[in-house]
Amino acid sequence: MDYQGIIEEIAALVRPEFGKGKVADYIPALAKVPASKFGIAVRTLSGDTFQVGDAEEAFSIQSISKVFALAQAYPIYGEALWERVGMEPSGNPFNSLVQLEYEKGIPRNPFINAGALVITDMLIEHFPKPKTRMLDFIRELSGSDDVYYDYEVTRSEREFGFTNAALVNFMKSHYNIKAPVEQVLDVYFHQCSVAMNCRELASAFLLLANHGVHPRNGQRILTKSQAKRINAIMLTCGFYDEAGEFAFCVGLPGKSGVGGGIVAVIPNELSIAVWSPELNEHGNSQAGIKALELFTTMTEMSIF
Amino acid sequence: MDYQGIIEEIAALVRPEFGKGKVADYIPALAKVPASKFGIAVRTLSGDTFQVGDAEEAFSIQSISKVFALAQAYPIYGEALWERVGMEPSGNPFNSLVQLEYEKGIPRNPFINAGALVITDMLIEHFPKPKTRMLDFIRELSGSDDVYYDYEVTRSEREFGFTNAALVNFMKSHYNIKAPVEQVLDVYFHQCSVAMNCRELASAFLLLANHGVHPRNGQRILTKSQAKRINAIMLTCGFYDEAGEFAFCVGLPGKSGVGGGIVAVIPNELSIAVWSPELNEHGNSQAGIKALELFTTMTEMSIF
Amino acid sequence: MDYQGIIEEIAALVRPEFGKGKVADYIPALAKVPASKFGIAVRTLSGDTFQVGDAEEAFSIQSISKVFALAQAYPIYGEALWERVGMEPSGNPFNSLVQLEYEKGIPRNPFINAGALVITDMLIEHFPKPKTRMLDFIRELSGSDDVYYDYEVTRSEREFGFTNAALVNFMKSHYNIKAPVEQVLDVYFHQCSVAMNCRELASAFLLLANHGVHPRNGQRILTKSQAKRINAIMLTCGFYDEAGEFAFCVGLPGKSGVGGGIVAVIPNELSIAVWSPELNEHGNSQAGIKALELFTTMTEMSIF
Amino acid sequence: MDYQGIIEEIAALVRPEFGKGKVADYIPALAKVPASKFGIAVRTLSGDTFQVGDAEEAFSIQSISKVFALAQAYPIYGEALWERVGMEPSGNPFNSLVQLEYEKGIPRNPFINAGALVITDMLIEHFPKPKTRMLDFIRELSGSDDVYYDYEVTRSEREFGFTNAALVNFMKSHYNIKAPVEQVLDVYFHQCSVAMNCRELASAFLLLANHGVHPRNGQRILTKSQAKRINAIMLTCGFYDEAGEFAFCVGLPGKSGVGGGIVAVIPNELSIAVWSPELNEHGNSQAGIKALELFTTMTEMSIF
Questions:
Q1: How far apart are CA B155 and CA B193, in angstroms?
Q2: How far apart are CA B288 and CA B276, in angstroms?
Q3: Using an 8 Å Cβ cutoff, are A51 and A278 in contact?
Q4: How many structural domains does chain D have?
Q5: Among A264, C207, D9, D232, who pairs with A254 as Cys (CB 3.0-4.6 Å)?
Q6: Cα distances (Å, whole numbers) of residue C54 to C22, C51, C59, C138
């Protein structure tokens, strides 16, 4: 199928969303990204690529990196991974300490900050060089050596990272963090500051549309069941406290980041990445969600 | 596809689950159901029916009726329905007042008790005889006139229904209930006490596998979008505080009830109803969830 | 000591508080009370009475009645009373369901609505005519037959009493209410609508300044320990979520009501009642609290 | 009055409490304190001292030090202090993050850990050598140069101090901490590890029985109003989530620590310090609370 016309139409249709949201400003390095950026890239399992707008301009993927972290840790730890992190929607803002205290240090799912920090801790335990490995993994999946750590963002994250430091310390007090607090934060802040573009993101997420098999070299990265389960968790937990609304309006497994990126997957078919820095009140890309809603409406694609 | 062999094998494989759960005992009328009951029914869009065990024995569908209520109210109120009830997973037990207070009387979703009570209030506002209409609607969808209100359960619900009375009163204090408290409770307790069997349930839920069109008479009950959205909400909110785990392990939209029934839908394909009265700690059928997990594993069917 | 000059000065000094608060409007019967009303009455154990302003005009004592209810129930049930209601500050608004759910139906203390409803239930269990008895008890303590139920307020409470109905139903679901829901609400709404004036209130509360002995007829109503303990609970729990601030600024055991009344006690010395209908954001009388703060500052009286 | 006979009788009467509680074991340095230790010291404003048991053996005063911190900060910052910390009972365990998140980084009161950390931050801002100054302040008040930092406890606190690190980081993310995280924790952990005995503690707390004037040298440390207000906060917030029960059973302003110490004050009269390491389920000294309850019962002293 030819998606080029569709994404071009979407790029035009989402224009009214611009100015309704707000670029993330909790760290200076993100606040200076121009609000007007917009890009879409679609990669199909049949090998086609479609793109529009700023689809080749790198941006900070932020929480989207949590999926790459989980995709690394899951094959290593298997189902034992779920002893240290849950798989239920959080029903609360993404950095909530309340839920964590209530659950005695076991985060609700791997896509809230607390859960991602536990996954980071697991990667540190297994890989001698977790930061290098993360970059290698994403480069391999995306087929691009251009993916990099944006160190200005890393520094910015560190400088304003008191909430994450609170989370790690709190979980350490509940014995759910093994590495030193500083190391967990260091690896995590690097992970958040991965920079890549829509085209690369769409390529990397094809893995999850392809049931865990690398779509270009045929290598199995995740078991079929693991890929399916990561998709399920993206659907139920991928959009902070707006997960239900995204499932409702878009109906696809996906993951967003405060850098304004969203990636979604249609199993057996394709992956799609959108970037637009202005965020809605829930911290998800305002125009990005609209674009995906339009994409599913216009293509009539849905998992439901 | 011939599912008969598969469900027969499942019926054998779930035997070890028996005795692990506990029949609901919060009302006497449910407590006396024999724990050993077990049935499966599969209805396909191509018109086939497969069944095993006690698939023709009626049981109390309880919270599964919340889907029938939503399916009636949604076409009437359209998207305005979501002004009075949310669409986010609750992250809390199904009768939690905490969430409701925090959200100022707007329930998180239509499948927690509070949300279902608001939907009931909406049906009362629209239908002169909401109790009669509910039964008619389910009979029409299931193609069976045998669906009935089990009045012993109704009475039992009413006698021990103080938590639901608390919910209605609380929402009334927030102006999110319009009808008199007693009427809302009366209609709601009737709805919970609908009795029908697996075969009838599977037939009725074909509507949601068929994108909102009655599978036998071709009548459109829900728009395509509405059917898709109800499926999305079933996936994210259909299993109380175990919604994430069900999505993870089974990967299908579905709805459970404390009577031990579970119905799930594979869009474009089929619906499947399972009944086994023993519940796990989250209030979902112990063997029922296992059966559905086996069904998706053996058929390799999944939306992800 | 001659308090007349002091309270007259206070009456002048609190003038700037007028207009800063807001008359309670959650029920119509209270909303129509003139905002400009203001009265103070002081009764000493040595038998003197001092008063200023509208000290002989009856108003709705509302939550102040919770002290009269506790003072009746405590001698009957003794320390067993505390098995059904706690004695800890709530840290939450006075009708919070959250705390109650967390504590599984045991209210935090007898001065939040939930706790007062349990006390009402205990009075119903013991007295054949709890409504008559309540009025007799207050009349006896205040030495005035003019204390009465303001039935317009009673009706108004009932009409808008959905939150209280929610509380009773919720506690009944936790088996902490024995009488029928409707009866508990009926007695409670009567109790809230007791009307009396500052002079009568100050007289009645002398009991607690006098260690449980009726100051005029010498009859022991409460043991010394019970009187002391009720004072302790008034200090820690008597002012909703402003209890700490009242202890901090005023430093006396006391109780407020949304009708704008406040009563406070100086053990071994006196009791003082103030009335001013405008409430601050915490639901306590704006000018009333200021008046009491001035009284303790000017008299240098304090328990600390 | 001669309290010697009374405290000796109390020492005998509390024996049955031994073995009912549990020595604090959250840090190794506290866990090794012998459970059988027990001491009482009474200091009167008239200059008498009474003591029994291990009243001259130093122990870790832990949270009692929070009162010394507040007594230093209050005269410096005045009422502006309350812009950064509240004065309401917390209604939650003493290190709860929930309340803190709900209140957006403003701790409920200065006697929960979060609040004490803010006070520590204020002391750091004002004093060039806050650790030296703290020790000097306590030595001056207690009239003893033997008060010291138990560095083994300090190290132990630091090693297991992840919860406090979580609190400081979280408040820093809400801009309610100004000094570097590590410095606040360092000063705070020192403060917690102050070691002194019952006699010294009782002497130091005479300040609060004497309305803010040093009882031996006549120097005014706190205004009369400040002393009264610290007493009020001790009464409402001094005993974690058992504050109400302590006010109810003992009826005195006081403060406890997990080292097993409790100090209480009878304004105008005396101060009393008790030490017994076994704690009840709320983290307060089991025998210590019993001893104070007996003391008020036997002396008939109470503020109510």
A1: 9
A2: 6
A3: no
A4: 1
A5: A264
A6: 19, 9, 10, 20
Spatial separation of the C-alpha atoms in residues B110 and B68, rounded to whole Å: 11
Round to whole Å and give the CA distance between D139 and D120.
18
Residue C199 lies in a domain: yes
Q: Is B113 helix (H, G, I), strand (E, B) or coil?
A: helix
- What is this model's ipTM? 0.91
Decide if B303 is inside a domain.
no
Residue B210 dihedral angles phi and psi, to the nearest 5°: -105, 25
pLDDT single digits (tens) A81-124: 999 999 988 766 545 676 777 678 899 899 999 999 999 999 99
Q: Do the Cβ atoms of D96 and A96 come within 8 Å? A: no
Contact between C262 and C19 under an 8 Å Cβ cutoff? The reply is no
Q: Please name the residue that has the structure tokens 């991602």.
A: A116
Q: Is the pLDDT of residue B294 over 50?
A: yes
**Contact assignment for D167 to A163 by CB distance below 8 Å:** no
- Are C244 and D87 a contacting pair at CB < 8 A? yes
Q: Which among A135, A156, A162, A158 has a CA at the least distance from the CA of A30? A: A156
Among chain D, residues having any CB pair with chain C shorter than 8 Å are 86-92, 99, 108-109, 227-229, 231-233, 235-237, 241-245, 247-248, 251, 253, 267, 302-304
Give the tens place of pLDDT for each residue, C199-239: 999 999 999 999 999 999 999 999 999 999 999 999 999 99
Task: Provide the edge-to-edge strand list for the sheet that holds B254-256.
Answer: B49-53, B39-44, B270-275, B261-266, B254-256
Q: Are C302 and C260 in contact (CB under 8 A)?
A: no
Catalytic (active site) residue D188: yes
Task: Indicate the residue type of B144.
Answer: S
C258 belongs to the catalytic site: yes
Examine residue C304 and state whether it is found in any structural domain, yes or no: no
Give me the CATH number covering residue B9.
Answer: 3.40.710.10
The predicted pLDDT at position B27 comes to 86
Cβ contacts (< 8 Å) between B97 and chain C: which residues?
97-98, 100-101, 166, 170
Provide the edge-to-edge strand list for the sheet that holds A194-196. Answer: A59-60, A194-196, A148-149
**By CA distance, what is B99's nearest residue in A?**
A91
The pLDDT value given to residue B91: 63
Q: A199 CB contacts (<8 Å, ≥6 apart)?
A: A41, A43, A49, A51, A55, A56, A144, A273
> Residues C212, C220: contact at Cβ < 8 Å?
yes
- List pLDDT tens digits, range A181-208: 999 999 999 999 999 999 999 999 999 9
* Partner residue facing D232 (CB), from C231, C237, C247: C247
D263 flagged as catalytic? no
d(CA D283, CA D133): 28
> For residue A296, is pLDDT > 90?
yes
Contact across the interface for A244 and B236, Cβ inside 8 Å: yes
Position D300, amino acid:
E
Q: Give the C-alpha separation, D61 to D43, whole Å.
A: 18
Residue C274 contacts residue C288 (beta carbons within 8 Å):
yes
Name, in order, each residue with C-beta under 8 angstroms of B47's C-beta and a sequence gap of 6 or more. none
CA distance B235 to A243: 11
By C-alpha distance, the chain C residue nearest D249 is: C229
Residue B245 three-state SS: helix
Residue of C nearest to D231 (CA): C304
Give me the domain span that covers residue D278. Answer: 4-299
- Using an 8 Å CB-CB cutoff, list residues of chain B that contact chain C: 96-98, 100-102, 160, 162-163, 165-170, 172-173, 181
Query: Whole-angstrom Cα distance, residue A265 to residue A270?
Result: 6
What pLDDT does residue B94 have?
47
Q: Summarize chain A as % helix, strand, coil (round to 5).
A: 50, 15, 35
Q: Please report, rounded to a whole number, the percentage of residues in chain C having pLDDT higher than 90.
A: 86
